[in-house]
Amino acid sequence: MNTVELHGGPLDGWRVDVDAEDVYPWIAILSDHGRYPGGRSLYRPDAAGVWRWERDLRPEEL
């Protein structure tokens, strides 16, 4: 596990653990801070390895 800092979006500045071995590097965190209460905020690493917000997901999308 690696700890990364999230950038942009509703969870900016949060530090979370991610699996460095995952072939699909993204994380969708349950969040009431995003656009959809009870939904999730999706983050993934950019080309430089910085974990950036992609979008918010409705509760039924994941």
How would you describe this protein?
The protein is mainly beta. Helix content is 0%, strand content 47%. Strands 2-1-5-4-3 form a five-stranded mixed sheet, with no helix packed on it. Strand 4 (39-45) and strand 5 (51-57) form a beta hairpin. It starts with a strand and ends in a 5-residue tail after the last strand. The mean pLDDT is 93.
Helix residue percentage = under 10%
**N-to-C span:** 22 Å
Number of helices: 0
What is the strand arrangement across the widest sheet?
Answer: 2-1-5-4-3
Largest sheet, strands/sense/barrel: 5 strands, mixed
Low-confidence stretches: none
Cα-atom Rg, whole angstroms?
Answer: 11 Å
Query: What sequence of helices (H) and strands (E) makes up the elements?
Result: EEEEE
Report the strand count. 5
Structural class: mainly beta
Return the average pLDDT rounded to an integer: 93
Residue fraction in strands: over 45%
Form type: globular
SSE blueprint and pairings:
Layout: E1 2-7, E2 15-18, E3 27-31, E4 39-45, E5 51-57
Parallel strand pairs: 1-5
Antiparallel strand pairs: 1-2, 3-4, 4-5
Task: Tag the structure with descriptive keywords.
62 residues; mainly beta; five-stranded mixed β-sheet; 47% strand; globular
Q: What's a concise summary of this model?
A:
The chain has 62 residues and is an all-beta fold.
